[in-house]
């Protein structure tokens, strides 16, 4: 499976409408790929909190419409990053969209772990409550978003649901870029799965983005890594690599589930 990660540079001076049009063209240029991945909240910027309310849209809103046409034109599966979704009850969610090569909505994932420590996204958005996997012809994708990376139990749940590759769109800040690389490699190693981690570049509301999108194999080797600016990474994923890794080093079989925490021992 050939995957292309589009590391979009988001800048405050570009309108949402202009960015949608520009990104759609970038998606169309990846017509030789099987899967295309975009970053988290790229239409508005992950830290542009003041735009969340005004630019929120339903699942069938303008971003889905434009991206669905781009997926059809390119003939690709498209993980369209995430949008600020306005649900029927008025709540806002950080919601990822996966579109088929026919432009149909194949899956959605509402981000479970919201970043902000009682401010920003953590108070402006509601939390999702469901794990999501998507069956592609050669891989089963497990969906996670940005801050989810810090919660390994989510990824183990995706493995239990059949995931062989994790897709992680993000708006990760540059000041914690070392954590970005470390956590993506850790999730690949501990779950013996591919990780396709697509971060944005540029600056969101004064917050410099990490860039450095990367693709990691099930042994934790970085197959490709972007720089700090707008860039496209294209990598071929071997469909046999995950089952071969899990058979050669069957660590997942040794998981101890349901172990209870005991009382501290006295000396």
From TrEMBL:
Identify a single GO molecular function assigned to this protein.
Answer: hydrolase activity
Q: Which domain of life is it from?
A: Bacteria
Q: Which organism is it from?
A: Streptomyces antimicrobicus
Coiled-coil features, chain-numbered ranges: none
Give the protein name, as stated in the record. Answer: Carbon-nitrogen family hydrolase
Give the record's family classification. Belongs to the carbon-nitrogen hydrolase superfamily. NIT1/NIT2 family.
- State whether keyword Nucleotide-binding applies: no
One of the Pfam families matching this protein, by short name: CN_hydrolase
CN hydrolase domain location, by residue? 1-239
| Family matches, as InterPro entries | C-N_Hydrolase (IPR003010), C-N_Hydrolase_sf (IPR036526), UPF0012_CS (IPR001110)
Keywords assigned by UniProt? Hydrolase
